[in-house]
Each structure stands twice: as C-alpha cells, then as structure tokens.
Specification:
alpha+beta; Beta-Lactamase; 4 domains; five-stranded antiparallel beta sheet; binds adenosine-5'-diphosphate; binds magnesium ion
C-alpha cells in the first residue's frame, strides 16, 4: 500500500513536471499560430499532438522506471525490517543503489546484528540463571498475590513432591501447609524480607525449613508476587537437638554416681568411719560408683573419638585374624559368663579367616555384644557366637537365650544412652552407650548390623564386615 502510494506519487509528479511545461508551451504555440495564420493550424495541431503524445509516453516510461528504481530497494528494506521485527534476527538486506538507501540498508543490518548479539547475551544470561536456579540446593518458588504457585525450581518440585499440574494452584493445595500460607500473607503485606523457621509435616516426615520470603511488585505495579526461598535445615536442627540431648544425658548419667559418691563420703566424714564394717561397706559403694563413672567417661571418650570425622578418615584397616580375637574376648569376659554358669558355644570355620578391620575396634564390637549377651541372659542360659564367610564379607552372629528386647524398643537400642529398663540396666552396670559405639564402629569400617529379638526367645545380633582381600583371592 505504502509502496504503491510512493510510486504513484513519484510517477504523477514526474509526469506533471514533464507534461505541464510542454502543455503550456503547446498552448502558447497554438494561440500564437492561430492568431498569426489560422490556415496552418490543423497541420500544426497534428504535429504538436504527435509530439505531445510521444513526449508523454517517454515521460511515463521514464517516470515509471525512476519510481521502480527508487521504490524496489525500499520494498526490500521494508520486507526485511518486517521479518526482523517478527523475530528473524538473522535476516539481512542486500541492496546496492549507490545512494542514501544503501546507508539505510546498512543501518538496518547493523541494528539487526546488534539486536541479535544482545538477545543472545540476554538468553545466555537467562540460561545461566535458570541453571543456577535449577541446581541450587534450595527450593525457590514464586507465588502470586492470591497465594497461587506460579513457578518452582527442581528442588522445590522434589522436596514438596510437586507436579507440573500444581502450577497455578493455591499454595494450600500444592504444599498443604498453613504455615507457608500465613508466611506468604505476611510477605504480601510487608515491604521487608520475612525470615521464618517452618516446621512442616510433609507426608509423614517432619521437615524444618529456614524460609525467606519477599514481596515483589509485578510488571503492572498493581499487585505483588512473593518470591520464597526454602533452605532445608532439618538435619542441622536435629543434630543440634541431639547434641543438646547428649549433653543433658551425659551430665545426668555422670551426676548419678557422683551424688552417691558424695553422699557416702559425707556419711563417712560424719562419723560412720568409726564403725569398720560400715566404713568398708560405704567405701565399697564409693569404689563401685567411681568405677561406673570411669566406665562411662571411657565410653564417652570412645564414642567422641569414633564419631569424629577426622578420626574416622584416619582409621587404617588391616587384615585381622578372627579366631584369636574371639578367643581373647571370651577370655576377657570369662569371669562374667562363668559366674552366671552360662553355656557358651563358638561356631567358626577351622581354617584361618581374616576380616578387614581395625584390630582394636573389631575386638570392641565383639566385647560389647558378648558383654550384653552375658548381662541380659539369666543364669544357666546359652550364648552362641558364629562366624560365616559370605562372598566378600564375613557375617558374625551373637545369639543369647536371654530376656530379649520388646519390639517397640528395637528401633532405639542403638541410640546413645538408650536403655530399655534403666533400673535393670543399672543393676548390671549398663550405660546405654555400648550399642551406639558398635553402630558407629561398623559405620566407620563399612559394616552393617541387624537385630532380631523377642522377649521370650532371646536376642540375635548379626553384623557384617568386609573380608580381607587376600582371603577372597584364595
Ligand atoms: N542381648 C541383649 N538382650 C537383651 N537386651 C539387650 C541386649 N543387648 C542390649 N540390650 C538392651 O539394649 C540396651 C542398650 O544396650 P547397650 O547400648 O549395650 O547399653 P548397656 O550399657 O545398657 O549395655 C540395654 O540397656 C538393654 O536394655
Ligand atoms: Mg552394653
């Protein structure tokens, strides 16, 4: 349309320029000849008409040609500009007119190529941001002013079990947490960053998040969106709680024997020492309580050592002969099991077997498990220690016919300080740390442990450790 009008105007103007003076000149000639010699008029009229028509035809051809030459490159430029505007930034104009239109084409090409570069830059930047957002260890979500979920990154999808169908839904449908909903409302009402610790019960598991929420004005500026970043601090918080528990438990466990020692020492100071029998009795109690404290401190130190990451990294495992260690453990504990008249059976291969472990820690596992079996089995009971070789590992079993462990306590017996019946355990000088130490050692040595028990039929602990490499090769 545009091109037509420019072209038509060009044709019209050049025609007017060429023909108007000619028409004026012809009119003057007619008038002149007619006034001087009217007889020659018809002859002249013919000649002038022919001249006029030829000139007009020439003028039309020339002006059309001129208009075409001028508007064709413009049309090429317009088409290219339209395509560029539609997003085809790679489009370039190729015209060669030798006039200002070339400059226009060059400017358009320049503009398109710069635009292309800028867009590429922006899209690379966007991609980078997207990548960071997708791979960051935080859940990032965008909500609209009604609390509907607009966008979420990969962590958010997996932590909150989202599906793409949930985008656009209200946060209460998508996340199902009233705490998140109220934090979102607060963020919408305030101009400041909101920091919250949210404890969310999510599909049966408790999760603790440090959430930062901020209201962002939308493009229109009328409403606000809320950007929420969730940082999972569940394990950190549980660790802190566990540490606080541990300190409380350890202090409590230490203060019990200390109170007894102090009480009996005071009684002695107050005059009980005058009576020899009493003083012996009290001194014996003080000794046994002091021994208990010593054991507790030793176990706490052992636990602290095996729990420390640096120490675990330093542990060197070597091939350890199993049979001599089993024999040493039985010898060490023999007063205890002989005293209770227990029958103790050991089943192990006759040929030498080697476990890949740290000798001291391997012995400690066996001592703790056999010590428990002895402590929690009534007199005349039976204990079995069995070792079997399985592919690249060794399986050890310590079974007793003792009092057993109720099913509800089984998941917790490896916790620090956990004792099923504190009074009963104290009577057999338990601290509740033995199994925790066993579990930590096995974790550090690449082993596993399982327990099967019922209060009627006794308890079976089964643990595995890697077999020594040279033994596998044989
Ligand atoms: N062989 C077993 N038979 C019955 N109960 C056991 C046995 N081994 C462990 N337990 C229970 O598990 C608890 C934790 O064991 P442990 O950590 O070794 O502590 P403790 O110092 O009391 O022996 C014990 O207090 C006891 O109640
Ligand atoms: Mg024990």
């Amino acid at each position: 349309m545009q091109r037509r009008s420019i072209r038509n105007r060009l044709i019209f103007n050049s025609l007017a320029l060429a023909l108007l003076p000619l028409a004026a000149f012809a009119a003057y000639i007619f008038w002149y000849v007619y006034s001087v010699n009217p007889d020659d008029f018809s002859h002249l009229f013919f000649i002038l008409s022919v001249a006029f028509i030829v000139t007009a035809l020439l003028a039309i051809i020339l002006s059309i040609n001129l208009a075409e030459n001028f508007t064709a490159p413009l049309e090429t430029i317009t088409t290219a500009a339209r395509r560029i505007a539609a997003g085809r930034l790679y489009e370039r104009v190729h015209v060669r007119t030798g006039n200002e239109i070339d400059i226009l084409a060059l400017a358009l090409n320049n503009l398109a190529s710069r635009l292309e570069d800028k867009l590429e830059e922006i899209s690379a930047e966007k991609q980078k941001l997207q990548l960071i957002l997708e791979h960051m260890d935080n859940a990032v979500m965008l909500f609209d002013s009604h609390g509907c979920l607009l966008e979420a990154n990969r962590s958010a999808f997996s932590w909150f079990n989202l599906s793409s169908a949930m985008l656009g839904q209200h946060n209460l449908n998508a996340l199902g947490s009233s705490q998140v909903d109220s934090a979102l409302r607060d963020a919408l009402q305030s101009d400041r960053l909101q920091q919250r610790t949210l404890r969310i019960n999510f599909q049966g598991t408790k999760k603790i998040f440090q959430a930062s929420l901020v209201g962002l004005p939308t493009k229109t500026g009328i409403s606000k969106n809320v950007l929420a970043v969730f940082h999972d601090i569940t394990s950190l918080t549980l660790l802190q709680e566990r540490q606080a528990d541990f300190v409380a438990n350890a202090s409590h466990e230490l203060s019990t024997p200390l109170t007894a020692i102090r009480g009996f020492a005071e009684t002695l100071v107050d005059g009980a020492a005058d009576n020899v029998a009493d003083s012996r009795h009290f001194a014996a109690i003080i000794l046994s309580e002091a021994e208990r404290m010593q054991r507790l401190v030793q176990e706490l130190l052992q636990l602290a050592k095996i729990e420390s990451v640096e120490y675990r990294q330093q542990i060197v495992t070597v091939p350890v002969h199993v049979q001599p260690v089993v024999a040493a453990v039985l010898k060490e504990l023999s007063p205890a099991w002989h005293g209770k008249n227990l029958s103790l059976l050991v089943e192990q291969p006759s040929e030498a077997i080697l476990v890949q472990a740290s000798p001291d820690w391997f012995k400690q596992i066996l001592v703790n498990l056999v010590d428990n079996a002895i402590k929690y089995t009534p007199d005349e009971g039976r204990i079995l220690i069995a070792v079997v070789t399985q592919k690249d590992q060794l399986q050890f079993t310590v079974r007793d016919s003792g009092i057993g462990i109720p099913a509800e306590d089984l998941p917790r017996i490896f916790d620090r300080f956990y004792r099923i019946d504190k009074a009963r355990s104290r009577a057999v000088s338990g601290t509740g740390l033995g199994l925790a130490i066993v579990k930590y050692i096995l974790d550090a040595l690449g082993g596993t442990i399982e327990v099967m028990s019922s209060p009627d039929s006794g308890t079976t602990f089964t643990f595995t450790l890697p077999a020594a490499q040279n033994q596998i090769a044989e």
